[in-house]
């Protein structure tokens, strides 16, 4: 298992994503799964940074693990409780110009992963993104 942690600020995002990508590659994850998880992690972490710590900076912890034919990326933060598995599906009907802005990030994560789990434990949000190998 590989673990990283970083400040929950937008300027930390590129380095954090590079670290996740490197960890997945070192774990032998195929390129397609790496790209899907990289995009999903980008969406999830961006949401944590923008909405999870609205009035202060915090930390984000990410761990990567391969087990039993599945790669899992676990993202933890101590921000505002939020369960993305309970978010409503976006309305994808009609013109993009007529739909409300936002709401597609969680939809994208659902489409790009094979597993999406959430729990709140010991004051932390724990989000698990899984991809079948």
Automatic annotation (TrEMBL):
Gene3D superfamilies per the UniProt record, alphabetical: Histidine kinase-like ATPase, C-terminal domain
One Pfam family linked to the record: HATPase_c_2
Entry keywords, A to Z: Kinase, Serine/threonine-protein kinase, Transferase
InterPro entries reported for this sequence: Anti-sigma-factor_SerPK, HATPase_C_sf, HATPase_dom
Residue ranges annotated for the Histidine kinase/HSP90-like ATPase domain, each copy included: 12-129
Ranges that cross the membrane: none
Gene Ontology terms for molecular function: protein serine/threonine kinase activity
Superkingdom field: Archaea
PANTHER family cross-referenced by the UniProt entry: ANTI-SIGMA-F FACTOR RSBW-RELATED (PTHR35526), SLR1861 PROTEIN (PTHR35526:SF6)
Protein name per the record: Putative anti-sigma regulatory factor, serine/threonine protein kinase
Organism: Methanofollis liminatans DSM 4140
């Amino acid at each position: 298992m590989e673990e990283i942690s970083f400040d929950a600020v937008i300027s930390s995002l590129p380095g954090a994503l590079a670290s996740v990508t490197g960890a997945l590659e070192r774990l032998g994850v195929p390129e397609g799964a790496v790209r899907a998880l990289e995009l999903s992690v980008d969406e999830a972490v961006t949401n944590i940074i923008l909405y999870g710590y609205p009035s202060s900076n915090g930390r984000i912890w990410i761990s990567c693990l391969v087990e039993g034919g599945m790669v899992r990326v676990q993202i933890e933060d101590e921000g505002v409780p939020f369960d993305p598995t309970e978010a409503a599906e976006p309305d994808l009907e009609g013109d993009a110009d007529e739909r409300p802005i936002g709401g597609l990030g969680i939809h994208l994560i659902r489409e790009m992963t094979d597993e999406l789990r959430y729990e709140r434990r010991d004051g932390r949000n724990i989000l698990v993104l899984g991809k079948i190998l």
